[in-house]
Amino acid sequence: MTKATDTFRTKPWCHNCAQAVANKWCQLYVNPQTILADLSKASGGRAPNGLCGALYAAIQALPQYEQQLTEAFEQRVGGTTCHNIMTTKRTPCHTCVDTADSLIEEFSNK
User: Fold this and answer.
1) Which of 55, 69, 80, 109 has the highest Cβ tally under 10 A?
2) Is the model's pTM score more than 0.70?
């Protein structure tokens, strides 16, 4: 697996946006053994405060960079909440997953 989107809505995994990001970066999480279950309901605007699930997963992986991740994600995608991204910006979920994946790669190397 080279990209987080490899398991996003793809059989046999069928991960949601948050799970796809977490699956690739599971070694960064405090509880890697439960992270996929923990994020099972963090998509479709159901992450806290309506955040995009992919962004939420990135923040959970690197909480020390929450502000920077949020700002960079917003600059690249055009928003931070699922509702805004989907309705106003019309950015596809795959783009959000790819963006979160790229941001984790960038920030985890700092």
Assistant:
1) 55
2) yes
